[in-house]
Amino acid sequence: MSEREKLLEVKHLKKYFPVKGGMLQRTVGHVKAVDDVSFEVYKGETLGIVGESGSGKSTLGRTVLRLLDPTEGEIVFEGMDLATLKNRKLRPYRKDMQMVFQDPFASLNPRMSVGEIIEEPMIVQKMLNKKQRMEKVVDLLGKVGLPAEARSKYPHEFSGGQRQRIGIARALTMNPKFVIGDEPVSALDVSVQSQVLNLMEDLQEEFHLTYLFIAHDLSVVKHISDRVGVMYLGRLAEIGPKNKIYDNPLHPYTQALLSAVPVPDVERKREKIHLKGELPSPANPPAGCSFHTRCPEAHERCRLERPELIHQGEGQYVACHLYTTEK
Length: 327
Ligand code: SF4
Fold this sequence. Notes:
Elements: E1 6-21, E2 26-42, E3 46-50, H1 57-64, E4 72-77, E5 80-81, H2 87-94, E6 97-100, H3 104-107, H4 114-124, H5 130-143, H6 160-172, E7 178-182, H7 190-207, E8 210-215, H8 218-224, E9 227-232, E10 235-241, H9 242-247, H10 252-259, H11 300-304, E11 310-311, E12 317-318
Parallel strand pairs: 3-8, 3-9, 6-7, 7-8
Antiparallel strand pairs: 1-2, 1-4, 4-5, 9-10, 10-12, 11-12
Helix pairs in contact: 4-5, 4-6, 5-6, 6-7
The chain binds iron/sulfur cluster (SF4).
Iron/sulfur cluster binds near residues 252, 291, 295, 307 and 322.
């Protein structure tokens, strides 16, 4: 990538959900779904975010898009902090930032035709006249590999992969700059996954899109990403260029995740690292490094002090007390 212009800068973002309890349903604690996360997304790139379910990655995506209100932190998009903007001021930015959801069937209104689904955001934003909107619908259907006749059909008449193509077409209706894919291929058959990933890559080039791609599947994220962030219990454990993360993971959690991925090349096979215990509850995360209850390298300091992300060279950052010197 020659151009390294920031499109989005997330600073110390937190999203806590209150936990209610007792007769009076008072707030007795918080689920820290996103807990002090900072990263940047550069124009034209794809940043992949991986983590187990419960790591907070989907909440992170929804909070960045302001589908959820952040508890704290900044979401700076093209220089404007969106974190505290209210409805009217937020509206102009909404069209620039779109989401492709995991389950296309649940996210498409079954009572609307495909044409109406794709047209709807243009009507809401009072964009174009009826004839122009129909032309745009047909054009977008073509871009995602569906025939013009698809516009008069309903979501249930399509396969999972085709429905995700419709979801992608709808996300592109407003000519967004930034698209978040929240597990966009996880519900699809493996054979269809690569077709949809390839389509997303083609559209990225054609429409000059920037992606935040959220998934639990490391091979899917590897396929599409330029850089990758690894989340554990609401925090970033490691972030860096794809090749650094996959070829030279530094954080013990990243190493464990990657050791579970089958590699065809015998020379590069890693010994599988078995993590002890279950993922702790984000309502009650361990003190110090939140990974210390499962980490094979845990030592005294890990139980006491939370590690911050430290640069380890060539854009690779890791939050682990094994790496104390910035490079
Ligand atoms: Fe493991 Fe300690 Fe590093 Fe956390 S800080 S990942 S517990 S070695």
